[in-house]
Amino acid sequence: AGDASGLITAIPGIVLGVACFLYGTLGDFIPLRRIVDAGVALIVAGSLLGFLFSSSLVGIIIARALQTLGYQAAASAYMILATGIADPKRRSLYVGLMCAAFQGGTAIGMLSGGLLADVNWALLLLIPLGGLAFAPIMGRRVPARASAGRVDVVGLAIFSGLALLLTLAASDPCWWLIGGLILGGVIFWRYIGRARTPFITRSFFTNVPWARSVSLIVIIYCMNFTVAPLMNGIGALTYGLNPAQVSIRLLPAYCVALTTAMTSGTVMARIGRGATVRGCVSLILAGTAALALFMSSGPWIITVAMCLIYAGFGALFTPIYDTVFATVAPGQNGRAVA
User: What does the sequence similarity comment in the record state about its family (predicted)?
Assistant: First the structure.
């Protein structure tokens, strides 16, 4: 059962890693409405497949992978549209709402998890179909016209392969995956240097401000995704809490993150991008220091420290992504964060 649950979460996670790269890049070349339509079809196919073949491990894994591909299509289209808004204040607002939606979804999932524990889990795979009620509204607002340029199929295939290797190597850093990643990187670099019209050029990667900004995203959000598992470990070893009890103590932190994500655009417009980043990092450091200094005080410190930490991470999303998009030309937003 443990191995099965690991596969059900790991394989869709790998698919998500590839989808983020692929959709973000395709969004600069083909109509976003086509990407969204494909995402809707994948969600429907995955939901029905999972429900009909709920007794098959392979069926569930394929269904969750298809659903994941569908979800990411909408997320990528949203980010490309949001970052293409000319008005800095409106752009910051909509980028912040993306992070707020993620934090809000996490909080709702934690609240509803206990309520859904007694429901036939096969029915849970049909829940995404409820979101299709918003598809007609969204469809009218998603551009149906493509940007200039053709799709570089060969380059995207190599790029997607690299994304797959990177995701696999991150989860299991064995030597042959790392070697394959290095070899794939060399092949990709040679290809974009020699191809007549590659989807991305070498100058994109030698853009130092872009590289620094993306490195900041990688470093900070690697920390973000390690915090919750770390809290589970601290809760179990220090206070004897099980994961469900730790999750309840983290719920206020997710609500705080939701609030700071929604207001980060307004804050950035008032005090500037640099000051917002410094303020967010200060909150994260303050939460970390509080956890280290008062860990023996009781499990309440988990909630207090995580409220500070997640407040910083929630508000950090908008200024960091705004920094990345400021380093690339218009029409390259999808590739900038792919």
Answer: Belongs to the major facilitator superfamily. TCR/Tet family.
